[in-house]
Structures are given as C-alpha cells and as structure tokens.
Amino acid sequence: MKQLILLFILLAVIGISCNNNQNNNSKENKEINAENENTAKPIKINVGYLAEFAGASAVAIAKEKGYFEEENLDVELFKFFNGHAAIISMVAGELDFAYIGHTAHNLIIDGKAQILIPNAISKGETIMTTKWANINSIEDLKGKTVATHFGTSGEAMLYIALTNANLSSKDINLINANITNLANLLINKKVDAISTWEPYTSEIFTAIPNDYKILTNITHYSNDIILTSSFISTSNYIQRHPETVEKFTRAILKAMDYRKDNLYETVALVSKLTDNDIESVKTEVDSAIWLTSSNLEEAYQSGDLFKWYEKQQKIFLYSELAKNDVPVTNYIEVEMLKDALDNL
Hints:
alpha/beta
C-alpha cells in the first residue's frame, strides 16, 4: 500500500514538473517568436512615383520620416513622368505599387489593378487666355482657337466648361498639343486660349505676368467633375501579399497626414527626391486638395469616395478612353483601405 501511495506521489510530481516545463517552453517560444517578428527581415517592395508634388510628396515623406521603416518595408523608389508608364511597369512585375494621376485611371477600370488610396483631388486645371485675345468668358470661346492635350485632365476641364456654357468642341477650333508646349502656344499668340494645369500655368504667369487672363478653373465645376489621383497595385499582388499591402497603405496614410500640416517642408523633400527646383515645386502646393486619413474616413462613410471616381469615369466615357460604364467598386480596394484606416 505504501508503495502504491509513493507511486501516485511520484507521478504527480512528474506531472507538475512537465506542466511547468511546458509552460516555460511556451513562454520561451512566445518570446522567441516576438523577437523574430521584431527582427524579421524587411519586406522589399518597389514603388513608382511621378516627378511632381502630387506624385512624389507622400512617398518622399514616408521614406524620410521613417513610416515605411515602421512598417518593416524596405522601399526602392522609381521615378516616372506619366502614370501610363508606371502602370505598364507594374503590370510587368517591375513595380509592386504606383502613384497615378487622373488620366491613367482609365487603364485600371477593367479591374486588373486596384485603387488602394485616394491621394488628392485636383484644383489646378485652368482655362487661360490673354488680354490681346479679347475673350472675357467661356461663351466668348465660340469660333476661337483653343488648345489642350487630348486625353488629359485639361481636355476633361475644357469639356465641362464648354458644356456648362451650352457649347461643344464643334463650336471652337480645337487643337491637340503636347502638354509641355501649351504654354508656349499661348505666350507666342499661336492660339486664343488653352486648358492646362500646374506647373504649366506658372510658365505663363512668369512669361506674361501682365497679359494673361484666367477664364475659369476646375473648382467652379465640382458638381460635375472631380479629378482624383491615387496609389494602386495589381489585383494579383494584392491577393498574394495582403499584409504587405496593408503595411504600405498605413505608411502612405501617415505620410498624407504629415503632408497636410507640413506642406512647405514637404516641398523640400519633393525637390530632393525629384531633383526639381524648389521654387517650381512650390508653385504646385495649391494645385490640389491634399487628402488625409480623416478625409478618407469621412468620404468612405458618406459615400463621397465612390462619387469621386464615378465622376472621373464619366469623363473617360465622354472622351471614349473608356467604352463601358462599370461600378467603381470593381477597381477600388475599399475593405483594405478601411482596415488600414482602422489600424493607423
């Protein structure tokens, strides 16, 4: 009997010892796992940006202020001069994420790429003329020679302005010109008016400071047209790397919040990243409404976020850059944006 009692006591002691060892091992494993997470190798990603304030500001901040590093992202930035080229590079697998301006959105409405973060709403599109052209209103453009760059936000702006003045492109002598040459056409009296945007409007301000005239700008037509810029990724990459996408999204959102309150510091960061002159970058600061995480949260809740892209898509349908009207939810990664906003 004594031997049986001793056996039970021995088994109990062994059981307690084993449980303690298991608890200790579990605790040690958790500590090791936590340490591994903290010292995990950074995730390498390639990000495309445009060489302008709108297209470079958020990534410049995220890089310089350590927001990418906070998310354990090792980011290599690649400079582009238009969103179409950035999308081609992304689809080819050379980029994981990219920034695009208004016009390039027509390439993603098929759903192969997804909008992750709305970045800004443009207010820089402007229709300009000169005092010698004797034009005082949009209605006065009838029969005049007007230039813009087809397929861009300049053409979109012109279409809306003409429509609101009960005119069409058939009522004017419309010329397609490269965006880099529009200012020169007006300055050299080759056309009567142009539809363009910053920083190209500043060329006119500088060249003919006493002779230019602004007929209208995009802020007068907010009920009809909203031109949004965005950060995007391919649907394939998002499906394969959802955690990395959320990390990138959080880093950019933090940068957008910083930008709102530190615009002129951001000018210096953009100049450094893009190699553009500080004074020229500074002229772009007032060219858009720079969105923040709180703006996006409010827009999501109110439904305005979807309306931005619906109005944008109508411009593509008019200009025949898009063939079919599709739900904007086909190319906006809404839930991932909401998750990132909730976990900032």
